[in-house]
Amino acid sequence: MSPSRTHAVDRLYFWLGLFTDVYLFLITAEFFSNFHVTHPALEQALDAFSEPYLGALAVYVVLKEIRKRRTEQPLSLHRGERYVWAWLSLLAVATVAVAATERYRFDAAYRAIIANSLAALILYLGARIHKP
Side-chain half-sphere of 27: how many Cα atoms within 13 Å? Predict the structure, then answer.
């Protein structure tokens, strides 16, 4: 890969990583703080970014695979794989919160947590199965 392409892939990888970090943080904060009660537009905005997040996550996985193949040394845990465990942990905690308390409910934030957690798991498993 040419140096300019390598640099472009690295920049895209960085920006997608930043977007996924921010989205994961915001959806977690929204679910546990119930900001949507006082700011209903926040829940709608997070819901609107859910599908672009899934697209970004898919591109992130592809870029991760490109970076893995470029690297001489095999890396055991990539930054993207930590998202999978973060999402699955969030799903577990949120599910217990919804099931065990009246404060948390099956709302748009929880639906996004379910969808994004399962999507991250599916993408991760697909990448693991496809390992060269």
Answer: 28
| Separation between Cα atoms, residue 64 and residue 26, nearest integer Å | 23
Location of structure tokens 């392409």: 5
Residue 44: half-sphere exposure toward Cβ, Cα within 13 Å: 5
pLDDT digits (tens, 9 = 90+) for 80-91: 677 788 999 999
User: What are the b/e assignments for 60-95, b being 16+ CB within 10 Å?
Assistant: bbebbbebeeeeeeeeeeeebbebbebbeebbeebb
Q: Contact at 8 Å (CB) between 104 and 98? A: yes
Number of residues that this document lists for the chain: 132
Could you report the per-residue pLDDT of 107-122, keeping only the tens digit for each? 888 999 999 999 889 8
